[in-house]
Structure formats: C-alpha cells, structure tokens
Amino acid sequence: SEVLISIKGLKTNFYTYTGVVKALDGINLDIYKGETLGLVGETGCGKSVTALSLIRLIQNPGKIDEGSILFNGKDLIKLSEKEMRSIRGNKISMIFQEPMTSFNPVFTIGSQIAEVLILHQKLDQKAAWKKAVEMLAFTGIPAPERVANSHPHELSGGMLQRAMISMALACNPALLIADEPTTALDVTIQAQILELMKDLKQRIGTSILLITHDLGVVSDVCDRVGVMYAGTIVELADVNSIFFKPAHPYTTGLIGSIPKINLTSRQKLDTIPGSVPNLIQPPTGCRFHPRCSKCMDICKKEKPLLKNIGENHYVACHLYDSTPELR
Ligand code: SF4
Ligand code: MG
Predict the structure, then answer these.
(1) Looking at domain 89-212, which CATH architecture does it have?
(2) pLDDT tens-digit series, residues 71-105
(3) Whose CA is closest to atom 3 on ligand 1?
(4) Which PANTHER family does the entry mention (predicted)?
C-alpha cells in the first residue's frame, strides 16, 4: 500500500508545574492511502496527543520536541503556522467527540461550512453555499437546506455529528482524523455514524485515523490497528491479527479479556490490572513492565523497539528480540 503520512520518532512533552509529562515517547507510524487505521489504548495513553501533534494543534504547555511527520514530501513539524493553516481543515481535517467544538454557536451551519470552502477552495459565496448544502446531503442529512440555515443548537447530537463530518470532508481531505467520534452519542446514532464512515470510505477513498477505546468499533470499521500504551505504540497490525493473533502482552490482555463472540459489543479497554503509569516519571525500559506478567531483566533497562514479526505485523516487546529488526 502507498504511504500517505509517515510519522517518525515523534516526541511530544507537556511542561507542567509538577514536571515534564512525556506524553509521546517516539511514535513511529505510517498511514496508508485509503485505509482506516484505528488507534486504541486506555485514557491518557497518547491517542489524542498523537492526533493533535499530527495537525500541530498541541497547545501550551505542550510542545513537539522531536521527530518528523512527512506528508506530500513536506515535514509538517517544520511548516510555519500559516502553511499549517492551509493544510488543516483542507488536506487533513479532524472531527471530535463533541461537535460543538467544531462549530461557532453564533453562525448557521451552512455559513460555517461555506467559510471553509471560501478559505481553502477559493469559491465565491454563492458556490460555497451550494457546495455546503451538497456536503450536508452527502452525509445523509435530510432537508439539507433547512439544516444549512440552522444554528448548531437547533440540531440533535447525531445531526450535528453528520454536519461536522460534512464540514471536515468539504475540501476532500487526504486524511480525516476522528477522535472518539461516537462516544457521546447513544447506541443507535453511534451505529448510524459508523455506517456513514464506512460508506464514506468506500465513496471517497479518504484515509481515516480513528481514535477510540471501543474494540467493537475497531473490529467493525478498521483495516489496521495501532495499540498504544503510555505514549508508545506497542503493536501495529491488520485488524484480524490484532484480534486473533495478538503478540504484545498488553494487547493479549486487552483482547483476552473479551469473549470473541462479543467482539461487536461495546467493550471498553480498561480491563488490565494495575494502573496507568505516571508519565512525569515513566517506568524505565518498557513502559509496560510494572504491569507485565512476562517481564524480564532487560525490560526494566532497555526500551523495546517496534519489530516486524510477520506480514504487516509489528510489535515492541523484548520477547521478540530474536526477530530481525524493522528497517
Ligand atoms: Fe513485557 Fe518485557 Fe515485553 Fe515489556 S518488553 S511487554 S515488560 S515482556
Ligand atoms: Mg482522548
């Protein structure tokens, strides 16, 4: 598959009063063209920080300290804020758990989508409005004209989610980042939004980075999955390998705790014994070692690197040290 975005050695830190929170500890991740890549892991493992770093929306006191993010031959980390603004919402867009984050309560839905099109696609007012209504229809919104003329608070949660997806897709982005897009919705609406995302993938071929802690969602919509633990990617593989041949002890714990028959049910990931480590003083070596039943001496000393252990299957764990190095 063709690589769309290549993240290498990404380190993002937060400089808080109590110390430096080492939120991302050298993330390596390629996103392929047209794939839906899931990022899973417990709350605070760095899923959202990875996404926000990717579009350079890390706020103070956070800072990207190392690494590169190659996209269209450019390193996004080196771009100016002005150059980044021409990419954000245009070539790479993001949708959030809470759609109100994307909309200004003061303006109509249609005018806000039109504004994105005027800015990035240089459409005039009239053409932008027309395209905005088309985009609302495209995501399955009935009566798109009326919704375009509505203010955000006039719409239900599910409709607002669709409107946000319409806005995110307005400029036909190469990558759509979706951070827990269905978590705030009730189960029926969740299912509809997931169906919509699967359908969009087929219709427009946009790559999707889907952040979730819901393994049912992952098995339902993702092609590949990256499992994150304490600011690192511990395993990366196609969705079947993750569910049926998990290699990392953390992944094994996650998957092992779910009866296979229940894969489509809404399973949460917070089932591994022990607590999430403090990232101001993270565990040495493998950050999972205090919770790992297979921990060896080397695990406390050396950080395991991602290694290729099979077709499209990567794992960061010293149990696989005898396997040839990745790259
Ligand atoms: Fe467990 Fe060691 Fe593998 Fe970490 S590197 S997951 S501690 S066996
Ligand atoms: Mg999050």
Answers:
(1) 3-Layer(aba) Sandwich (3.40)
(2) 999 999 999 999 999 999 999 999 988 888 889 99
(3) 317
(4) ATPASE AAA-TYPE CORE DOMAIN-CONTAINING PROTEIN, OLIGOPEPTIDE TRANSPORT ATP-BINDING PROTEIN APPD
Q: Which atom of ligand 1 is nearest to the CA of 286?
A: 4
Residue 133 Rama label (left phi>0; alpha psi -120 to 50; beta):
alpha
Going from the C-alpha of 282 to that of each of 24, 39, 90, 110, 196, the distances in angstroms are 11, 21, 36, 46, 39
User: What residues does 238 pair with on adjacent strands?
Assistant: 224
Q: What is the pTM of this model?
A: 0.91
Mean residue pLDDT across the chain:
90
Please list, residue by residue across 233-255, b when 16 or more beta carbons sit within 10 angstroms of its beta carbon and e when fewer do.
bbbbbbbebbbeebbbbbbbbbb
Cross-strand bridge partners of residue 29: 7
- Mean predicted confidence (pLDDT) in 15-21: 93
Q: What ligand has the least distance to the C-alpha of 318?
A: 1
CA distances for 132 relative to 55, 94, 120, 124, angstroms? 23, 17, 13, 12
| pLDDT (tens digit per residue) in 241-294 | 999 999 999 999 988 766 554 444 444 444 555 666 789 999 999 999 999 999
The reply to whether 89-212 shares the fold of 1-39+54-80+214-248+255-280 is: yes
Give 29 Cα–ligand 1 centroid separation in angstroms: 20
pLDDT for 264 equals 47
pLDDT tens for residues 60-78? 999 999 999 999 999 999 9
Which CATH number fits the domain 1-39+54-80+214-248+255-280, given the four candidates 3.40.50.300, 3.40.190.10, 3.40.50.1000, 3.30.950.10?
Answer: 3.40.50.300
CB environment 160-176: b (16+ within 10 A), e (fewer): bbbbbbbbbbbbebbbb
